[in-house]
Amino acid sequence: xxxxxxxxxxxxxxxxxxxxxxxxxxxxxxxxxxxxxxxxxxxxxxxxxxxxxxxxxxxxxxxxxxxxxxxxxxxxxxxxxxxxxxxxxxxxxxxxxxxxxxxxxxxxxxxxxxxxxxxxxxxxxxxxxxxxxxxxxxxxxxxxxxxxxxxxxxxxxxxxxxxxxxxxxxxxxxxxxxxxxxxxxxxxxxxxx
Length: 193
Known about the structure:
This protein has one domain (about 45-190). The chain contains 9 helices and no strands. The longest helix has about 30 residues, at about 160-190. The chain is mainly α.
C-alpha cells in the first residue's frame, strides 16, 4: 500500500500501473497480485488505510483540561496531518482516475459513506468526549472534511505553510465558536427547565 500511495501521489493515476507499484515496493507483479488480486483491490485498500488513520484520530481525541479550545486545535491539526500529506494525494488520484467508470464510482461513493459512518461511530464510542462534544463534532464533520479537502487543493498552488496555518486557525476557531454556542444553549436550556 505504501508503494501504491507513493506512485499515485508522485506519478499520478495514469502511471500507477501494477508494474510501477510492484517496482516501487521491490516486488514482482506476481507477488503484488498475490496480496492484491487487482489494482482496484489495492486502491480500495489504500482508501481503507487513509480512512483508518482518520478514524484513529477520532478515537484518540481527549477532552481534557484545555476544554473545547485545545480539543478543536488538536482535531484540526491532526486531520491536516492526514489531509495535507501524500497519502491524500493518492486518494484524489483514485477519485479522479475512477470518475469515468460507473461501477468504480459507486464503489467510491459506498466507501465514502461507510468511512463517514465509521468516523461517526469512532466519535460516538469515544468515552473521553462529552455527549455535547460528540454531537457537535458529528454535526460539523461534513463541513470540516469539506474544508480540509478544499485546503488540500490549495497545495497544488504551492502555498506557503503560513497560508495553511492561518486557514487551520480559522477552521479551529469556527469549531470552537460552534462548540461554545452549543454549550451556552444547553446551559440556557438547563437553567430554564
